UniProtKB/TrEMBL annotation, chain A:
It catalyses: n isopentenyl diphosphate + (2E,6E)-farnesyl diphosphate = a di-trans,poly-cis-polyprenyl diphosphate + n diphosphate. It comes from the Eukaryota. Pfam families: Prenyltransf (PF01255). GO terms for cellular component: dehydrodolichyl diphosphate synthase complex; endoplasmic reticulum membrane. The keyword Transferase applies. It comes from Geococcyx californianus (Greater roadrunner). Its EC number is 2.5.1.87. Keywords: Endoplasmic reticulum, Magnesium, Membrane, Transferase, Transmembrane, Transmembrane helix. It is an enzyme of class 2 (transferase). This is ditrans,polycis-polyprenyl diphosphate synthase [(2E,6E)-farnesyldiphosphate specific]. The keyword DNA damage does not apply. Pathway: Protein modification; protein glycosylation. Belongs to the UPP synthase family. Its cofactor is Mg(2+).
UniProtKB/TrEMBL annotation, chain B:
This is Alkyl transferase. Its main location: endoplasmic reticulum. InterPro entries: UPP_synth-like, UPP_synth-like_CS, UPP_synth-like_sf. The gene is Dhdds. Forms an active dehydrodolichyl diphosphate synthase complex with NUS1. Pathway: Protein modification; protein glycosylation.
Length: 155, 255
């Protein structure tokens, strides 16, 4: 996708906006891109940005399934080895990342459109009309809505 | 109480149904029937009463779907996570299941009349043996009916379903029936509990919660999601119409 191909341009824009919006405080909030090779980065900085596209959805699950079946074909695993946790750990594009607590959905379409189906099992899905000219008030009220959500975890 | 409420729509309901049916209609609707316990608290009755009224509402909603020409309905009746509830509540829900599945076996004529095929989806071995037997009987008894389909997710989570599908494919590889390269999105589709159904067009969750709670995560990736604040036992024909209209508004975007 466009965002994935233009990492550095996206980072420049983020840094510029941080300076504009946060003024002197902006140095407190470091931001790093998370990519496949640098799982350590995730632990060392305050904010990490992961850019995803539709291929990180079902296609990732299929890839994990293929990888597991490959191990089975090579007799390194049996089918009974596979449970929810094993499959979870095989999903590579989101390795080291916790499941999203909140999805902020922009636009008029009432659907997740294939976004990380596995990972959003408990994610709160809050919609905002558009990311264009979004106001801080709108953003904050979405966070407020999230804070009011009560998870019962099945209990 | 019966699985399908008898009765036709009122004149006003029929009038609105005809208007709605002029637009695109969902063929398969999924429901997360949430809010039974909050309803019970609100009405100062026992939780078990809330669940029982929840079942009655399911029967009524099925009736509305039949009247609207919606051929397939999938409902989230009991999650694997719900086993974490108190023994008293879980036993109560299991008793409700026993009662309702037994009732289902008694009303064969009604099910035959409406041509309802009942399927139960989930990790059924997690359930008490006698309930597994009742479920098996109910599913066998209705398996040839094909006018409409009711899928009841019981002892279900989506992650367990997907893991089970991958395990089946891995078993296929072990038995030499498949190569790893045969593993694909459509093969996985065919190994899910829902393999006999098209993906839901519309997913409705009641009680105001805005999450999927491990329900049909794979199958609803491109479905219209409608979150409604009404508690499930209070669900009305108008709530259903509202959800269908939202589906219609999203229709061209989701094609």
């Amino acid at each position: 996708g466009i965002f994935k191909r233009n990492n550095s341009r996206l980072m420049d824009e983020i840094l510029k906006q941080q300076q504009e919006l946060l003024g002197l405080d902006c140095s407190k909030y470091t931001m790093e891109f998370a990519n496949q090779d640098n799982a350590d980065q995730v632990l060392n900085c305050q904010s990490t940005l992961k850019v995803l596209s539709p291929e990180d959805g079902k296609a990732e699950i299929v890839k994990a399934a293929q990888d597991f079946c490959q191990l089975v074909a090579q007799q390194q695993r049996t089918h009974t080895d596979l449970d929810v946790n094993v499959l979870n750990n095989l999903l590579s594009s989101t390795n080291g990342f916790p499941d999203p607590d909140l999805v902020l959905k922009f636009g008029p379409v009432d659907s997740t459109l294939g976004f990380l189906p596995w990972h959003i099992r408990l994610t709160e899905i809050i919609s905002l009309p558009s990311h264009l000219n979004i106001s801080y008030e709108d953003f904050f009220s979405a966070l407020h809505h999230y804070a009011a959500c009560e998870q019962r975890w099945g209990k | 109480m019966s699985w399908i409420r008898e009765g036709e729509l009122t004149i006003l309901e029929r009038f609105c149904a005809n208007i709605i049916k002029a637009g695109p209609m969902p063929k398969h609707v999924a429901f997360i029937m949430d809010g039974n316990r909050r309803y019970a608290r609100k009405c100062h009755v026992e939780r078990q009463q809330g669940h029982s009224q929840g079942f009655d509402k399911l029967a009524q909603t099925l009736r509305w779907c039949l009247n609207l020409g919606i051929q397939e309905v999938t409902v989230y009746a009991f999650s694997i996570e719900n086993f974490k509830r108190s023994k008293e509540e879980v036993d109560g829900l299991m008793d409700l299941a026993r009662q309702k599945f037994s009732r289902l076996l008694e009303e064969q004529e009604n099910l035959k009349k409406h041509g309802v095929c009942i399927r139960v989806l989930g990790d059924l071995p997690l359930l008490p043996l006698d309930i597994q037997e009742l479920i098996a009987q109910a599913v066998l008894a209705t398996r040839n009916y094909n006018k409409c389909f009711l899928n009841v997710c019981f002892a279900y989570t989506s992650r367990h379903e997907i893991s089970n599908a991958v395990r089946e494919m891995a078993w296929g590889v072990e038995e030499g029936l498949l190569e790893p390269s045969d593993v694909s999105e459509s093969l996985l589709d065919q190994c899910l509990y829902t393999s006999n159904s098209p993906d839901p067009d519309l997913l409705i969750r009641t009680s105001g919660e805005v999450r999927l709670s491990d329900f049909l995560l794979w199958q609803t990736s491109h479905s219209c999601l409608v979150f409604q604040s009404v508690l499930w036992p209070e669900y009305s024909f108008w709530n259903l119409c509202e959800a269908i209209i939202r589906f219609q508004m999203n229709y061209s975007a989701l094609q």
